[in-house]
Amino acid sequence: RKEVEQDPGPFNVPEGATVAFNCTYSNSASQSFFWYRQDCRKEPKLLMSVYSSGNEDGRFTAQLNRASQYISLLIRDSKLSDSATYLCVVNTGRRALTFGSGTRLQVQP
Amino acid sequence: GAGVSQSPSNKVTEKGKDVELRCDPISGHTALYWYRQSLGQGLEFLIYFQGNSAPDKSGLPSDRFSAERTGGSVSTLTIQRTQQEDSAVYLCASSLLSAGASTDTQYFGPGTRLTVL
Which pLDDT score, from 0 to 100, does residue A63 have? Predict the structure, then answer.
């Protein structure tokens, strides 16, 4: 079983739609959680950290459910520019991060 | 300010040759990481450097892979006797890793796309 699992998608949604991605992780001792965004043939960039209480940044909301060991990302009012691959990232206690394979989002006009 | 830089951006080599990939982290960042990403796959951790501590090499796939970090700054990833399965994008990241933090935001370089023919 992979340490971090994501639905690869693609999720094809119209502009303005709300879309949600989930991610599950296997190591219950995981300490830190992040969502990174990766555009095609570009490097990953931090989108947001995920806090236990849930956190919001503009149109983006991230939530953590430790009991069920999953993380979610909600994007409201999708823009064309949101089209990218969203990587679920977990710190399992090592310094390096463990990345999911990513969920691809395609926002259509 | 300057971000993480990597060179070369693209490298095409023949099977069996050695290659060196370079990473310049953000100035002042004490932690440096190497990952690789195969086509359509997630990032695979390779090696991690933190200050003067011994590197965490647990992700290196074989003894053909090695890395060093000179002077706590620039890092070089070397792949000896390259194989076709080594073809991937090799990404370097750095972080500030402030005292007491279990992890910090990692900032990635643009990567080196390695193609082994």
Answer: 95
Contact B73, B28 (CB under 8 A): no
Q: What is the pLDDT of residue B30?
A: 87
- Nearest CA distance, A3 vs chain B (angstrom): 12
pLDDT (average), residues A98-106: 93
Contact B106 A97 (CB under 8 A): yes
Mean pLDDT of B50-78: 91
Is the pLDDT higher at B64 or at B54? B64
Dihedral sign, Cα of residue A22, residue A69, residue B50, residue B45: negative
Contacts of A67 (CB under 8 A, 6+ apart): none
Chain A contact present for B50, CB below 8 A: yes
Assess B33–A contact: CB distance below 8 Å, yes or no.
yes
- Greater confidence (A77 vs A32) lies with A77
Distance, in Å, from the CA atom of B66 to the CA atom of B61, rounded to the nearest integer, reads: 10
Angstrom distance (rounded) from CA B64 to CA B80: 5
Do the Cβ atoms of B26 and A66 come closer than 8 Å? no
- Cα(A5)–Cα(A22) distance, integer angstroms: 9
Q: How many angstroms away from the CA of A49 is the closest CA of chain B?
A: 9
Shortest distance, CA B110 to any CA of chain A (angstroms): 5
Query: Which of A2, A36, A43 to mutate against chain B (most B CBs within 10 Å)?
Result: A43
